[in-house]
Amino acid sequence: MTGAAWLLRRLVASVAIIFAVVTFVFILIHLAPGKPCGPIGGGEYQDPIVCAQLVQQFGLNQSIPEQYWLYLVALAHGNFGYSFSLHRPVRDAIADTIPFTLQLAGAALLLDFLLGLGLGIYQAVRVNRLPDVVIGNVTLFIYSLPTFWLALLLLLVFGEKLRWFPVGGASDPIFCPLVSSLYCVADRLWHIVLPAATLGLVGAAGTARFQRAAMLEVATQDYVRTARAKGVPERRVVLRHQLRNALLSFITRFGLAFPFLLTGAVLIETIFAWPGMGRLAFDSILSRDYPLVTATALIASTVVVTGNLLADILLGVADPRLRVRTSAEVEVLTA
Amino acid sequence: MLRRSPPRLTVIIVLAVAVLAGCEPRGGCTGANCGTLINAAVAEPSTLLPPSSEEIVTNDIDEQLFLKLADVGMSENTLGDEDFQALLAQKWEWDGPLTLVFHLDPRARWQDGQPVTAADVEFTFNAYTDSAVASPFRPKLRRVASVTQRDSLTTVFRFRERYPEMFYDAVYHMRILPAHLLRPVPRDQWRTALFGRQPVGDGPYRFVRWQPAQSIELVADSTFFLGRPGIRRLIWRFTPNLQVAVQQVVADQADIREQLVTPDNVKRARDAKHLAVYTYVGNVYTFLSFNQRSPTDSTQPHPIFADRELRRALARAVDRASLLKSALGDLAKVPQGPMSTLLGRIWDPEIRQLSYDTALAARLLSAHGWRDHDGDGVRDKDGQPLAFHILVPTSSVLRRQYARLLQEQFRAIGVHVEVDELESAVVSQRVGTGKYDTAILSRSNDPSPGSGIAQSWTQAGFGGSNFGRYYNPEFERIVDLANSATTRDRARALWRAAMETLNADAPGIFLYALDNVAAVHKRVENVQFRADSWAALLRTWRIPTDRLIDRDRVER
Amino acid sequence: MTLGTWLALFVALVVAAELVRALRHRGLRQERWRRFFRHRTASWGLGILAFLVIIALAAPLIAPFDPNKQLDIIHLKNHPPSWTFLLGTDVLSRDVWSRVVFGARVSLGIGALGALVAVSLGTLVGAVAGYYQRWIDAVLMRGVDVGLALPRIFILLMAVALWDGLPFAALVIAIGLTSWFGTSRLVRAEVLSLRQRDFVVAARALGADTARVIFRHVLPNAAAPIIVSAALGVGNVLLLEAALSFLGIGIKPPDASWGNMIADGAPSIYTAPWSTLFPGLAISLVVMSLNAVADGVRDALDPREEPA
């Protein structure tokens, strides 16, 4: 199969997946009993007159297929609907959170990658000796911690007691309400450290364990033993063969971790007051703010699917043998 | 390769960070009107348009943006007009028994430069009372017949009847709105109007920006006609988790936490050396509301709570004093009725309430046929167990704790209780549509008992705040008399009678009335908290020039 | 703690240790068991799990107090650990140790049920996809992609928010229904590679029908990823339950689960850390043990040669 045909097939599949996700969410919402007039939010109880107005305004009393069709039509025009609970257009509400979400996800993944890979490789090189055992147990412990527990602990130690990092928030509200200077970039980085560390440490522990196993498996493969037998310096053996393998498997793990960082990190975002999409999704679900929920699902799944697609392309570039297969199958080879 | 470059790379990174940190902008503000106060707020407002929201945080921020005609003084006296502070209205007089005339201060300006006129006042009244706006304040203005303008600075209020709190009703509930900016907005879209996210007011502070889910920033108006505010900048910073919000104040990253809530938080604040802890009278009471209508069909009575004797028995089963001591220590008082400590003038320890007596409760329940026939520890009658649900919002740590405490109290007399914890907007919706058995709710009091009590405990509140549909014509009669009582002593006696009548009916169990404990950074001077609205006097707070810290010197 | 409960605790410890030792002796004869017990962490993990399961089963004997009883809300609130209250009391004056013990029942039960649903479904889907290939495989795997595009918390929150009064058992099954995607991929991969092996070809040549081939020949040899998924799955469900409880959607009061103990104790974390510390440690301990056991199983069933 040629590269172009494969790409096309993957693109079509990706679009289908996004479509399926949105439909699933839409159906789930409308299947649930006892609607349609959700609370407007902010602790206000429902005035029946206002409720009727809203139902009329947003077409909540039409049949499900009708609402679905109207929704799709609106989407085609770039209209994501109106959020009941936030009193804003959905597009604005989500657009505000996207930079924060991407920044946090990026920082967490960076930490995950650097630390996890480093530890995993180091463990594999010093396998079964003391450093390996110690790191192995520590990663096991961190991997088993509930993340919000770790979050509260880090906040207490580094935020309150040592005061090295800010206690929550995404930026300094006085000097940097908007990222308008280089200083504000540094300020954002400073605020990102604790939440990214919480997510990244647990991720790194998992990556380190995974990487160690993967590297050990590769180490027994013929081509690596051949290289060693030929007298290739140890470092080069590690870097060229095992590291490249590590990269491939990391890319596939990235695809699995990303959805969580987008809408699943709600606990971390709540504790650290990080205004990301997880918190938005959570609040919108609990407020039964249907347009916002569906739109969040749409955006999140689009980002995930795009990320997976990019990962597949990267893999295809990195290892031509893999060009035909998808990332799911690559996982098989490297797991 | 990999091993040699990291040291160089890390050195570069560290240097870069150090340089950037050094670039921190330092402000140069000096003098008596500098200062930035960050409020570690928990709830974010949904809109800042005054008539559209009853949220406390909206009120706090609107206090700085929009003026009332006049406001209560620190004495919280709502009778007559002597103890009120002039704000937008410079002076006033009575023009007949039912007519009140206000003369507006000619110096008052909207932040876009337009003068505040009587047309604005008339427009505001019409908006607040318009059913299309559906303002929760509307019932409070029911006794004002009309508001008209005599000339651009004179506005006339006409009342339907004469009663002691006419002045209070005229000035307290409405924040005057800019007619020229709000007239174009269709009334039924006020709740979602853009003005609510970018308000333009006439108050001591100007709106600067609202970063959704992050912060709201206000800056002082140096030309404010009643005196330049002492603090230059106010920032409400939103942190959903109360613990973390308290942590921010303790770690000196925020300056104010207006409610510490739990004894643990109060202890932490007291231990922090840079914080001063202030106690002020609370205006909220929390109670367990009994729904007297069936949750599935509001035309039918509730199988348990429609029965007055059953309610009274259940109310006797709860040891409110112990619950309070356990959950709040000495930070609250047991209310003798639907009152917070703000209503000090009718707060009377002699008011008769149902006493805590589990033996009596058990006897009463048994006498009414509720016995444990099947030996499962739960009383039953005709095959139905004596069981109900308590609804609490997940957002309130205290109420969730109380729900568990109450569950155990009821279990001890053979009543099975399940606790449902739901998101607060959902709780509001359930409670508003009557789909609940019992719920732990909090209500805030205005300085006057009249408006709040009527809203929550009389027939006028059906479909409104009287979620449990409590109705006693005798109670309403006494309340009407109390509202028209001319002397304070007579009012007090009548309110006492009213409370006793209500307590005897046990429409709910009144659990606690919080005393507010706030933490404010020590450097702030002249910190005054008014009980009904803590932020009302923010503009009088000051930071002496010798106590300015870095974040105070920002010059924006 | 009374003498009786101390004795019961001691007995539980001894039984767990003996169980592990017995397994080791018995296993010494088989290669696989030997490989499993070579890992010290795997043995310890097994022992800890055994201990926790035993105390969960024998909870009424081991717990000195009724876990839901509020002992004295004024004087025994947030009492630090002592000889009477081994792990202290919580904010409602309930004994933390008793709640941990009874909470083990709930949490481990939830973990087991959720993992059971997840692994069963995942194995079924993965086996079918891997065996039949072609369009069935493509459709099923795209379905898995859809499932992986949204995080579990999102879907679970929706289920809870939209169905008021969802019984917790239904929530656990929902957790299982959203956790099978990874397992299905692993099983599919394993089945794909096993399919070509001689014994499968032989079985098919002999005329065995598909179901028989899958269940009797393929799956037993794919045991490694299935068991590992199950072990890790229980841990994931436990962590998920803790997260849901922290968000306010967990086991309803007054019943204890490790997750809702952490959630209830969080407001007093600075003044009474024991009420969150011990259930959190319990969860970590179980997840760690499960991971260690999973490592051991993976190694036992799918050995790699040691690097030179």
Cα gyration radius of chain B (Å) = 26 Å
What's the total helix number of chain B? 15
Please count the beta strands of chain B (DSSP E, at least 2 residues each).
21
Total number of strands of chain C: 0
Largest interface: A-B, 57 and 60 residues
Low-confidence stretches of chain B: none
Structural class of chain B: alpha+beta
Proportion of helical residues of chain C: over 70%
Radius of gyration of chain C: 22 Å
What count of helical segments of chain C does DSSP give?
14
Calculate the mean pLDDT score of chain B and round it: 90
Q: Order the strands across the largest sheet of chain B as they lie in space.
A: 14-20-13-19-17-18
Span between N and C termini of chain C?
53 Å
Low-confidence stretches of chain C: none
Main sheet makeup of chain C: none
Give the % helix of chain B. Answer: 25-40%
Mean pLDDT of chain C: 84
Secondary-structure content class of chain C: mainly alpha
Strand content of chain B: 15-25%
In short:
Chain A is mainly alpha-helical and 335 residues long.
3D structure, described in words:
- The complex is a heterotrimer of chains A (335), B (556) and C (308).
- With 335 residues, chain A is an all-alpha fold.
- Chain A has 13 helices and two strands; from the N terminus they run H-H-H-E-E-H-H-H-H-H-H-H-H-H-H.
- In chain A, a hairpin with a 4-residue loop joins strand 1 and strand 2.
- Chain B has 556 residues and is α+β, with helices and mostly antiparallel strands.
- In chain B, the strands form six sheets. Chain B has a six-stranded mixed sheet, sandwiched between helices. Chain B has a four-stranded mixed sheet with strand order 1-10-9-8.
- Chain B is globular and about 80 Å long.
- The longest helix of chain B is centred in the N-terminal third of the chain and has 18 residues.
- Chain B is built from 15 helices and 21 strands.
- In chain B, helix 13 packs antiparallel against helix 14.
- The model of chain C has no long low-confidence stretch (mean pLDDT 84).
- Chain C starts with a helix and ends in a 7-residue tail after the last helix.
- Chain C is flat and about 75 Å long.
- Chain C has 308 residues and is mostly helical.
- The interface between A and B is large, with 57 and 60 residues.
